[in-house]
Amino acid sequence: STGKDDEQSIWGRTRLPVPMFSKNDFSLWSILKQCIGKELSKITMPVVFNEPLSFLQRISENMEYSYLLEEADKAKDPVDRMELVTAFAVSGLASNLERLSKPFNPLLGETFELVRDDIGFRIVCEQVSHHPPVSAFHADSPHFKLHGSVYPKLKFWGK
To answer: CA dist 51 to 10, 63, 76, 142, 154, Å?
Structure first.
């Protein structure tokens, strides 16, 4: 199902076309016991535990509050600019508040591009290394340029 945002005329999905499997049919504890001491990127989990999107799409969600960077660009006071940039830096955590699933790992060379003409920015993400996993991104608008890489290094110790 799709929904149209009347203010911005952007079409977006409001629900998945197929219902999610019930995670209650799987014992997470039995899976986690076998994973103690392993690097999280090498742990095989049942697909039901994945969120139906790529990690590259998840990176682009960090731009949800990009208007804060626009405001920082327009701010005259350097303290106000710093506050707005700091608010943007932590705003990406807001989209993870109720998430319980991890996104799919991108394939080497996979790309994701999001263009938001209504807001005035675009972001391009690419999986640039598989072992170790490294994702790079570049976002720009008339008010800012933002680039970086995500190099997660996680282990599950069972503590």
So the answer is: 22, 19, 41, 32, 18
